[in-house]
Write a structure and sequence with these properties.
single chain, alpha+beta, Jelly Rolls, Arc Repressor Mutant, subunit A, 2 domains, six-stranded antiparallel β-sheet, four-stranded antiparallel β-sheet, 10 strands
């Protein structure tokens, strides 16, 4: 199997990848929202069916609320850092690093700054034709969020696999040469994971009142550290020291905010990275394990088999 052969086949399932079938897709925020919240927004990458956009709010005054605005496109938003609320006519949704949210086109909203620190988001806007193709492929009308016309925004508790894909996309955007195929593949995989989450109704609308702003920031720091160093040996002491909390409290608040123990979260990051390498490289199974943070090929094979119900070698053979 040649690198990316699996994804070439996967992308062929989406006929919208023919450029002449696409409507224009871009990114914009209302001027009132930008001015009142000191928001800086720019497009980092434009594909045939999506744009990846960076949004940073420089407003550091707690409880500052923006003017109402609305989005033009169906989009998925990852909160990279900070803590704010996303407000619609039905209520407010907490947004921080452990959550993502999904908005339908023409969703009217405002945002409220909840801390005295800036916040940043990655917003992925999708073309209208992409949404039609997704409907054709997975029958979105059978999912509550898409069937209910009164529901315009939904918060999801993120998964380690999604956060690794987001991290890999952001890292790739900083490289000298950007591969359109690589980004198309990663975004498609993100969408398919999110659709599976929606089918399972794996959603969350607010965080526990016990999750203080300090705890959210500590968990955010730990997740960033694990995303950057998952291929290395990471100790609980190392994570808690980096996050500025004691090891005992770190384990407790990390699971409360993410739903995963630090060990399980790190393990899922490593397994997802291994899965991507199996799909996109010709590396040996042992090398893939080492590059994903597993010190023993036998342990890697056992962990992968337990999670994916198939051995790494068999998984790779099936992709051919």
């Amino acid at each position: 199997m040649q690198p990316f052969d699996f994804y070439h086949a996967k992308l062929k399932e989406y006929s919208f990848l023919k450029r002449n079938q696409l409507g224009e897709v871009g990114f914009s925020l209302g001027n009132e929202l930008q001015s009142s919240m000191q928001i800086e927004a720019k497009t980092l990458f434009a594909s045939d069916f999506f744009t990846i956009n960076d949004l940073i709010c420089h407003c550091c005054e707690r409880c500052t609320e923006s003017e109402k605005d609305s989005n033009t496109y169906f989009n998925i938003t990852f909160t990279r850092n900070g803590y704010f609320t996303f407000n619609t006519f039905r209520g407010s949704i907490d947004a921080h690093n452990s959550h993502i949210f999904i908005k339908k086109p023409d969703c009217e909203y405002s945002v409220t700054q909840m801390t005295d620190h800036s916040f940043g988001c990655t917003i992925i806007n999708f073309s209208e034709n992409f949404l039609h193709e997704l409907e054709r492929k997975v029958q979105l009308k059978n999912i509550d969020f898409f069937r209910n016309k009164d529901m315009h925004v939904l918060m999801l508790k993120s998964k380690p696999e999604l956060e690794l894909l987001h991290f890999l996309v952001c890292r790739h955007l900083g490289e000298p040469e950007i591969s359109k195929l690589y980004l198309d593949c990663m975004i498609i995989e993100m969408v398919e994971i999110i659709v599976d989450m929606l089918i399972l109704n794996n959603s969350i609308y607010s965080i526990s009142s016990l999750n203080t702003r300090h705890q959210i920031q500590s968990v955010q720091m730990a997740k960033e550290y694990m995303s950057q160093h998952y291929c290395k040996c990471i100790s609980l002491h190392e994570l808690s020291r980096y996050s500025c909390v004691s090891p005992f409290h770190f384990t407790r608040i990390f699971k409360r905010c993410t739903g995963y123990s630090p060990y399980h979260y790190l393990q899922l990051l490593r397994l997802k990275n291994a899965e991507i390498l199996l799909k996109t490289t010709n590396l040996t199974i042992a090398d893939i394990g080492f590059k994903s943070g597993f010190n023993s090929p036998d342990y890697f094979c056992a962990a992968f088999t337990k999670s994916y119900k198939v051995s790494p070698s068999r998984y790779k053979d099936v992709l051919v």
